[in-house]
Design brief:
The protein is of the alpha/beta class. The protein contains 15 helices and 13 strands. The chain has a 6-stranded parallel sheet with strand order 3-2-1-4-5-6, sandwiched between helices. A 5-stranded parallel sheet has the order 10-9-11-12-13, with helices on one face. Helix 4 packs across helix 5 and helix 7 packs across helix 9. The radius of gyration is 24 Å and the shape is elongated. The chain starts with 15 loop residues before the first strand and ends with a strand.
Length: about 425
């Protein structure tokens, strides 16, 4: 591999740096840290201190797994990156208040890497972006900071993350990894690198832009499928038909896709489509189906509250001043991730009706909930206190509760709204 300073023979001795130690970066650093020297880098010093103490607050990596990564060191000091050869960037790529891509974390991480970038180094991006972002937005920052030139002095690649927070079955090693590189030789090297830790195998894309596009449509497809069943739920609700019963019946056909209605939050499905639509609009095309699905999914919290309030009124419960319990705050079950949780929409809409809302979620950190969502979860709900109880997240703790124990949280005339359909139909008063 004469074109690349770091030829395949030296891959064994290369030192890695993983930039950003969240849900994506930490599992990656740990897997590589079992085999080779790795610097896990994050600007959050409290995060570094916790990881050095052997605990991951995201719960994606166990304390035992952290100790298994014997070649991994954690740092927030730039000089610790100077002797690294391969940099893997795994920082968040959120959207702003206007639903436009916010590349600030990505570009700042690129500036950090650019300051220590050397001849022959490779920078791999895993953050979700729109097609062209790596080469059009990130590379210029790397070149400006380092004074080096792409594909002459250093190289880049893109290998999109596929981490599913809270999923203990689909872990990093057993999820197929898409890889790509800025030259054919670098693409081979990057593919071989990930092949060291990915048991499920890799797929080498023909270009960085193909790999970027593949990632962004994965979650766009899921978003649209969920939007479809959400719209069906709205229609069937107006017709007095049980949506879950309909989906169960339709699911007996071999090729019916098993999507279920619900809130669409988190850092992926509720965000990634906006990266694709942003790029589409930049090239002169206004997406219709994708944005329609996004709008519908973003409005589901309001629809849920409308159903709850209607059920309360039918019971002659005075809405203004009523007491409600929302069970669950995270964006999905069995994980502490609060990023872009749409449960907040339910809380705020209930409050707009003058309803006093308690939120109970055994998975979340109270201080983080206050900071991220402006919500202060309670330690334990009091039985018989609530005019409305909304099961918003299907945490295992809630599924393990006896249905009547959830029913007992409400007043005798109170309503139970089962957004996640974890209760028997005769226990809940309404469900999505």
């Amino acid at each position: 591999m004469s074109e690349v300073n770091m030829h395949s023979a030296s891959l064994e001795t290369a030192k890695l740096a993983v930039i950003g130690l969240g849900y994506v970066g930490l599992p990656l650093a740990v897997e590589f840290g079992k085999l080779r020297p790795v610097v896990g880098f994050d600007i959050n010093t409290k995060r570094i201190e916790a990881l050095r103490a052997g605990h991951d607050s995201t719960l994606e990596v166990s304390d035992h797994e952290l100790t298994e990564a014997g070649h991994l060191q954690f740092s927030s000091t730039l000089s610790d990156l100077e002797d690294c050869n391969i940099f893997i960037v795994t920082v968040p790529t959120p959207i702003d208040a206007h639903k436009r891509p916010d590349l600030t974390p990505l570009l700042r991480a690129s500036e950090t890497v650019g300051k220590v970038l050397k001849y022959g180094d490779i920078v791999i991006y895993e953050s979700t972006v729109y097609p062209g972002c790596t080469e059009e937005d990130c590379v210029p920052v790397l070149e400006a900071q380092s004074g080096l030139t792409l594909n002459r002095d250093f190289y880049v690649g893109y290998s999109p993350e596929r981490i599913n927070p809270g999923d203990k079955a689909h872990r990093l090693p057993n999820i197929c990894k898409v890889t790509s590189g800025s030259t054919p030789e670098v693409a081979d090297l990057i593919d071989n690198l990930y092949g060291e830790i990915i048991v499920a195998g890799t797929h080498k894309a023909g270009s960085i832009r193909v790999a970027e596009a593949a990632k962004v449509i994965e979650n766009t497809q899921r978003d649209l499928n969920i939007a479809l069943v959400n719209e069906l739920a709205i229609i069937f609700n107006k017709m007095g038909i049980d949506t879950q019963a309909v989906l169960t019946a339709a699911g007996t056909k071999w090729n019916f896709l098993p999507f279920r209605p619900g809130l669409v939050g988190g850092h992926c499905i509720g965000v990634d489509p906006y990266y694709l639509t942003h790029k589409a609009e930049a090239i002169g095309y206004h997406p219709q189906i994708i944005l329609a699905g996004r709008r519908l999914n973003d409005e589901m919290g309001t629809f849920v509250v409308d159903q709850v309030v209607r059920a309360m009124l039918q019971r002659r419960i005075h809405v203004n001043g009523a007491k409600a319990l929302v069970m669950g705050l995270t964006f999905k079950e069995n994980c502490p991730d609060l990023r872009n949780t749409r449960v907040v929409d339910i809380v705020r809409t209930l409050q707009s009706y003058g309803i006093d809302v308690d939120v109970y979620d055994p998975w979340v950190d109270v201080e983080e909930a206050r900071h991220e969502c402006g919500v202060s979860p309670i330690a334990q709900p009091e039985p018989g206190r609530y005019d409305a109880v909304i099961v918003a997240v299907a945490h295992s703790q809630f599924q393990d509760m006896a249905p009547q124990a959830i029913r007992a949280l409400a007043t005798p005339s109170g309503i139970i709204y089962d957004l996640k359909s974890i209760l028997p139909a005769d226990v809940s008063d309404a469900r999505l």
